[in-house]
Amino acid sequence: MPRGFPTRAGIGAWCRSPIRAATWLATAQVAAGGAVGLAGLAAVAMPIAVGIELARSVVAPVLALVVILAVVRGCVVLQRSRVTVFTGVDPAGSRPGPSWWRWPFTAGAWRQVGYHFVAGPVAIGMATLVGAAWSGGLLLASAPVHAWTLPPDGPLGWNPRAPLAVAATTVTGLLLLLLAPALATALARADLAVARAFLGPTRRQERAALDRRVSGLAASRAAAVEAADAERRRIERDLHDGAQQRLVSLAMNLGIARAMLKDLPEPAREIIAGSHEEAKLALTELRGFIRDLHPAVLDELGLDAALSGLAGRTPVPVDVRVDLPERLAPALESVAYFVVSEALTNVVKHSGASRAEVNLAQKDGRVVLTVADDGHGGADTARGSGLAGLSRRVASVDGTLSLSSPTGGPTRLTVELPCAL
User: Are 108 and 208 in contact (CB under 8 A)?
Assistant: First the structure.
């Protein structure tokens, strides 16, 4: 079937449109808008007339203006409620409106006054148009029922009782009834768009709300990062004071048994010796895990000492330079430490470098961390899961990570972090 040609399903939906609930909801929305607009204009006309009549008095025009503003505010509230009831959308959003006495002095008050005086008559016109479409279509479609009541001599000599005239009138009415749903839906959408434009917040209010939202998200993110860092420190303390101490005790007992029980059979002594070695290996792995989870030296002596200790455990010679005027927030220190730890691990495993350097300094209100090596290069954040994880961890504290690693080297990893969360 050619594109754009109506399908059977489309024709069926169009024929069912006059009995759909959405059609009558749109019709009711437009009709209610016209009723509220008409009532508002009628309520405003009275104080205007009184103010003109008593224009010589100073109090009357002022009182009339107050009454007009109160009526307009009430009509605005009704229009917002009407749109919300019929569409489920509040034109003003979730922002609470100002109090009645402050409303005339707000930025959006006179836009709402304009909506009432401009959109009110338009709403009356839309309601009249939709009502005419439905009532006219129903009247014309029922021509076979009431055509006999019409005079035989119509305008221009046309006989409305003639069978052909009745058939043409009926078909016209049916077409109008089929077009009325589309008209009601289109006008309901236009009504919602106009309400959003006039009754919604101003650009300044939207910008202020967005700024508040961004500030709230930044605060919640900082709290989440700090909570995660505090949880890592708690786990590190629990492992250090609990499981590690038990493994130390176990290794010591196995070592004592290995040294004292010399008269046991050879298989028993081999089992004790193997258990002793396994306990020492497990203790070494646990210490490495605790250190990688959150090194205690980072809390006790700061980032300089922690990075120096990390460089000292790296097989490749590493030059560390830290130049910070004061200590960073614990979460930022943790991120910087683990960036260096992961970078040096990659240097040892993949780069083939003979030496590396770590520089940490404060520049232009940001903390700049650089890890460089003289390896063969070729590193890529898109291909390395470790580097991708570093990027996400740095981004969690509003930092940025960039990597320069051409083939043949050298490789330079640069991370910028904020000075505070």
Answer: no
Strand segments (E) across 96-204: none
Look at the pTM and tell me if it is higher than 0.90. Answer: no
Give Dmax over CA atoms of the chain in angstroms. 134
Tokens 């203790």 sit on residue: 283
The helix or strand, by DSSP H or E, that contains position 394, with its residue range, turns out to be: helix 385-395
DSSP state of 118: I
First to last CA, the chain: 61
Residue with tokens 């707000």: 106
Pairing state of beta strands 400-404 and 318-323?
unpaired
Helical axes 59-87 vs 21-53, angle rounded to 10°:
180
Hey, how many other C-beta atoms are within 10 angstroms of the C-beta on 59?
Answer: 8
Q: Which amino acid is it at 262? A: K
What integer is the mean pLDDT of 336-347? 85
- What sections of 313-359 are H helices per DSSP? 330-346
Where is 362: in which H helix or E strand? strand 356-363
User: Could you give the CA distance from residue 133 to residue 129 in angstroms, rounded to a whole number?
Assistant: 6
Phi, psi for 13 (deg, rounded to 5): -65, -40
3-class state of residue 154 by DSSP: coil
If one compares 382 and 366, the residue with the highest pLDDT of the two is 366
Q: Which of 177, 170, 188, 192 is nearest to 80 (CA)?
A: 192
Angstrom distance (rounded) from CA 89 to CA 80: 9
Q: Is a pLDDT exceeding 60 seen at residue 2?
A: no
Mean pLDDT, the chain, integer: 76
pLDDT in tens, 303-320: 888 888 888 888 888 898
* pLDDT confidence tier of residue 406, bands split at 50, 70 and 90: confident
H helices of 317-373, where? 330-346
